[in-house]
Design brief:
By secondary structure, the chain is α+β, with helices and mostly antiparallel strands. It contains 19 helices and 34 strands. The strands form 9 sheets. A 6-stranded mixed β-sheet has the order 2-3-1-4-5-6, sandwiched between helices. Strand 2 and strand 3 form a beta hairpin.
Length: 632
């Protein structure tokens, strides 16, 4: 059965609640104070099933909102999720202040379907009724309630006159309402919280997208708290059900939180996908009747059942004029769950009156400061672009860092599998759960090569750059960096040797004096045998400066021409190789050797003997047993 949510709107005491009761038989005023004072204070709910011309039925869920100006904030909590509005105007009073404010709110929320209902038709004569009808026709002309496409229906809740006509008009209008997406990710803005004895915590709301099932295994996430809950029971329009789908009035019996953890304005949504936000980028429209809105002005913000205080930071302008629109960033005092496409209302900070509204374009704006023109260009794509253009722009703005697939689902309110398909269609590069634009990927490769070139040009005596340093200099995300590194190696633009990276074909480049110094250092240690000089002695006599001399030594150590066996002792590799052979050759005649015998055999002092024996232990030529070494 198709479900459509119908909301009332209009001035106080124009008969909204009486009309809902006349249609459904349900009194939507549930509070004792409402019944005592005879006015609606909070939102109320009712439902009705009507037959359609094709023999099926349509279910209408009514949200009755207060008309008093003091309770507009409650009205806004109810009107956010409606599909169709009944603009209620009393025939004996006509258009009044809250009629105008409620009508402005409906237009700002982009409600596309509705009916104008002239209540209390029994309280005036036919001539007066016609005058009021003409006044209304003129007032709604050019809007979604234009009488040319949306009838004005006169009724009397007291006598029942016109109710059948209204029901027929409701069926016709509701039939044109597009069904909400039940396959989308679920979101339920909470409008009521209470406890039922024997059941526990219950929340209600209008399910604006997706499907929620009764399940102990499937979890929902509570925003902005981030807590996980399980759904123990589901009711749709007051009747138990296995699941609720988008567009239905829904009550959930939930486990995992108490009523103290819950409040109107929170949202239940698919777990592990979305993130609360303190800022959103929007297209903001100001009513013609509003005062100019200055940049950084404080406003009251309303979206679905949520309300908070925010600051409007206008992009590219210092002031938004009445009747105009601009791109802006709204920064909130409290976190909330908002997604692209969500409609909202802003009210003046003081005095509190409705001044405008708009649509959320980006609920994950960049935190770094950006130029107004760049922000506006991006938001224009979010407003008018195709979905693959939107994805490409979202990925592109993250440059060479890229964007995770999991983040795309939350940013764009789409499932991960759909994000992958969309990425392929948009021509994005996908690896290791990261998406990056082709242009950014090409730049990432160029940045790595350029960083490496700059380093090697400045350090010609260094064999290469460490991966860690190259990663830092290129300023890439880890996934992008290592993918780029592999790609450049595959393209033979660089070579990776362990932890060192260097440009292909680009080895150490030495000047003549450096080549000569290298030979001197190597000869000094090769000719010294085991009685090696200190490095300081060898480097002192060189023609090159100390820094270049140390780099030459580092190069000789890297290539294992020289081998450092302790903090102070460096030997030529040929000398150590010869020593290893001599010690190994002793095994057949002298299976063990001590320090004294080693000193006698090599002619070195204890200063050299102990480090050399420890070196032989490390190389598994010998093994220390007490004061002796066993030759292996």
């Amino acid at each position: 059965m198709k479900s459509v949510i119908v909301g009332t709107a209009g001035h106080i005491d124009h008969g909204k609640t009486a009309l809902v009761k006349a249609l459904t038989g349900i009194d939507a005023d549930r509070l004792e104070e409402e019944k005592r004072r005879g006015i609606t204070i909070d939102i109320g709910f009712a439902h009705l099933e009507l037959p359609t011309p094709d023999g099926s039925k349509i279910r209408l869920g009514f949200i009755d909102v207060p008309g008093h100006e003091r309770f507009v904030r409650n009205m806004l909590a109810g009107v956010g999720g409606i599909d169709l509005v009944l603009l209620v105007i009393a025939a004996d009073e006509g258009i009044k202040p809250q009629t105008r404010e409620h009508f402005d709110i409906c237009r700002l929320l982009a409600i596309r379907r509705g009916l104008t209902v002239l209540t209390k038709s029994d309280a005036v004569d036919a001539e007066t009724l016609e005058v009021v009808r003409l006044e209304i026709e003129d007032y709604v002309r050019g809007s979604f309630l234009d009488a040319a496409q949306s009838p004005i229906v006169a009724v009397s809740s007291l006598t029942g006159a016109g109710l059948d006509n209204l029901k027929s008009a409701l069926v016709h209008a509701a039939s044109d309402v597009a069904a909400k997406n039940s396959a989308a990710l679920a979101r339920l803005p909470i409008d009521r919280v209470f406890t039922i004895k024997g059941f526990g915590t219950v929340v209600t709301g209008t399910l604006i997208s997706g499907t929620i099932r009764k399940s102990d295994e499937e979890e929902l996430e509570l925003f902005p708290a981030g807590k996980r809950v399980r759904v123990r029971g589901v009711q749709v329009h007051g009747a138990a059900a296995e699941s609720a789908i988008a567009g239905q009035r829904t009550a959930l019996n939930i486990a995992g939180v108490s009523t103290e953890d819950l409040a109107r304005g929170m949202t239940l949504a698919t777990a592990g996908t979305f993130h609360s936000t303190l800022r959103v980028d929007v297209l903001l429209s100001l009513l013609p009747s509003a005062k100019p809105l200055k940049d950084r002005a404080r406003v009251h913000f309303h979206a679905y059942t949520t309300e908070t205080i925010g600051e409007a930071r206008l992009y590219g302008i210092k002031q938004l004029k009445p009747g105009e629109e601009a791109y802006a960033q709204l920064r909130f005092d409290e976190p909330m769950l908002l997604l692209p496409g969500d409609r909202f209302i802003v009210r003046q900070f003081s005095p509190v009156v409705t001044i405008g509204g708009g649509i959320v374009l980006d609920a994950s704006p960049l935190t770094r400061k950006q130029r107004a023109e760049d922000a506006i260009a991006f938001l224009k794509i979010m407003r008018d672009g195709s979905i693959d253009q939107m994805l490409a722009a979202r990925v592109g703005r993250h440059g060479t860092i890229g964007l995770r697939l999991d983040d795309i689902a939350g940013e764009m309110n789409i499932r991960r599998a759909d994000a992958e398909k969309l990425a392929a269609k948009a021509g994005l590069i996908h690896f290791n759960q990261i998406l990056i634009s082709p242009a950014a990927y090409a730049k990432a490769k160029a940045d790595v090569v350029q960083s490496l070139k700059i380093f090697q040009d400045a350090n010609p005596l260094v064999a290469g750059m460490s991966k860690e340093e190259l990663h830092d200099r290129a300023s890439l995300g880890a996934e992008v960096f290592y993918n780029v590194l592999g790609k450049l190696e595959e393209e033979e633009k660089l070579e990776v040797d362990g932890e060192l990276v260097h440009l292909s074909g680009r080895g150490v480049v030495m000047k003549d004096d450096e080549v000569e110094s290298k030979k001197i250092i190597e000869h000094a240690f090769a000719s010294a045998g085991l009685k090696v000089p200190s490095l300081k002695e060898v480097l002192t006599g060189l023609k090159v400066d100390k820094l270049r001399a140390q780099k030459i030594v580092t190069l000789l150590l890297r290539d294992k021409v020289l081998i450092k066996i302790s903090e102070e002792l460096v030997f030529h590799q040929s000398v150590l190789l010869d020593l290893r052979h001599k010690i190994s050759a002793l095994k057949t005649t002298v299976p063990k050797i001590d320090v004294a015998r080693f000193k006698d055999m090599t002619g070195v002092s204890r200063k050299y003997a102990i480090p050399l024996l420890e070196y032989l232990d490390r190389e598994h030529v010998t093994r220390r047993v007490g004061d002796e070494r066993v030759i292996l």
